[in-house]
Design goal:
By secondary structure, this protein is of the alpha+beta class. Helices cover 46% and strands 22% of the residues.
């Protein structure tokens, strides 16, 4: 089930499915190119995609990873401007694309979906504001701590410990916080020596979320 469309009944979902164009992508394949003049909204039905941009030097900047049930491309579908980011598949992925006109009609006819979309966009603004503050005020070490804390909170069952799987790749982490793989490796080793994280066979275990929170809050001044 696509989270944004959860308010629709079965008959309405059938109509959306019939109106969508469907396409599969292999891991590593580009789905949307930044600045492309396309306006469809896309729904992830299987697989996983990454929202990225690239600097002039070609360095990848990662914004988010999206899994089944998520959507992307709503900005261009709403305002008609070129795409603001590139989207690439990071696993074998199946996408359903709905035209901007049909998407806009659906929003106008279903206020609950419009409200859900507004809440989603508000969340993106808050996340972007937080990220801008971190990039502007925190050193690279602290940005890595903050990103690790964010990922831990997403999967923690009790707010005390967390198991992040698959293990975050140093290059991916570096692209999220604008630093180098070497810096990420050094910080992760430091955290392991302090007993805050532990690398298992198939997961990175955050053993002390509270301590990690304190490290982040100390430098943020919270």
């Amino acid at each position: 089930m696509i989270t944004l469309l959860s308010e629709l009944d079965d008959a309405e979902i059938d109509v959306v499915e019939k109106n969508c164009s469907w396409k599969s992508y292999a891991a590593g394949e580009q789905i949307i190119d930044q600045h492309a003049d396309t306006r469809d909204i896309h729904f992830v039905t299987d697989g996983r995609v990454r929202v990225v941009n690239y600097s002039l030097s070609g360095r990848e900047i990662t914004f988010d990873d999206l899994g089944p049930g998520s959507h992307f491309g709503e900005l261009a579908a709403i305002d008609g401007l070129p795409r603001s980011a590139s989207i690439m598949a990071i696993a074998d992925t199946r996408i359903a694309a709905l035209s901007h006109k049909q998407f806009q009609d659906m929003i106008l006819n279903h206020p609950n979906i419009a409200l859900k979309l507004m809440k989603h966009l508000a969340h993106l603004v808050r996340m972007s504001t937080s990220r801008i503050m971190d990039l502007s005020t925190l050193g690279a070490n602290n940005r890595i701590h903050a990103e690790l804390l964010r990922q831990a909170r997403l999967v923690s069952p009790d707010g005390v410990t967390a198991s992040i799987s698959p293990i975050p790749v140093h290059g991916d982490m570096a692209s999220r916080v604008s630093t180098t793989r070497e810096t990420v490796a050094r910080v992760m080793n430091d955290l392991a020596r302090q007993g805050i994280v532990e690398r298992k066979k198939d997961a990175l275990v955050i053993k002390d979320i509270e301590r990690l929170e304190e490290m982040v809050e100390d430098v943020r001044g919270e």
